[in-house]
Amino acid sequence: MNNPCIDHGRAAARAATTRRVFLQQAAGAAAVPLVSQCLAAEDSARGKGRLVFVVGTHHYHPELSMPPLAKELERLGFRTSVILPPGDPEENRNGEGVPGLELLEQADAAVFFLRFLALDDAQFGHLQRYLTSGKPVIGLRTSTHAFRYPADHPRAAWNEDFGRSVLGTHYLRHMQSPTECRRFDQAKAHPILTGLDDQPFTSPGQLYIVDLAPGCVPLVIGRGEAPREQVVNDRFRTRLVARTESDIVAWTWQNRYGARVFASTLGHPQDFAVPQIMRLVVNGIHWAAGAPVPDASTAINTFRLEIDA
Description:
CATH architecture: 3-Layer(aba) Sandwich
CATH class: Alpha Beta
Strand content: 15-25%
Distance between the termini: 29 Å
Shape: globular
Number of domains: 1
Order of helices and strands: EHHEHEEHEHEEEEEEEH
Helix content: 10-25%
Structural class: alpha/beta
Strand order of the largest sheet: 1-3-2-4-5-12-11-8-6-7
Number of helices: 6
CATH topology: Rossmann fold
């Protein structure tokens, strides 16, 4: 049986073997020994706590980006585990869903990068227990639309509720161009924006249109373009999406379960090579986990994945 929990270096190597374009990068990397158990022995000092990263899609390649992100968070003082399912778990295409979710029981905070999951009762139970515990939640990119159960399934409401009730928005639409980002000046004193000045920066990914819940605190604004305006309908509202749109791409919230939330629709595989985005995500994880945010003088390492979205 595949071991769903591996250290971040091993996760990157394993994922690389499934991506021919990634082979040269993997071949040049230093070998990392395979850990024999999901969790290494506890250190005498816990540092900033344990982060569990849950990869639940291959869309935007979080199977490649989350292991090196975990490695950077570990360098900064967290202990990390990456749940990396075999194959693509969307709509249970791999026949195994996301094994290893029981690790959430030992998490101090969890980082989710999910899309269109249809977990079985046991796996969903692990996830639901974590969410309803009120522990910190970090959600990236497609996690706003984490589930795709059939309409007659008992958990079909979670197709929207993970986004709306856990992260603060469901998915509505995305634009077609790279996203021009800037700090939201009214939030410039927020700890998550430590080290981000007022200079704009670009995400290679497309802007997601959001519909944030009351109480969400905007941190970063993005601007994107589309070939034409569209009227978008869902079960909540009808909205005109113009050819050029600005919207919020990173925010905080206290969700319905009382959890401290940092969420962002950033997460394109090349976003982590952008210093401002990497610092934003690292800071957001610290803040959500209740750890001191690195000061502006602390170096945050970026990484580049030589793959397409």
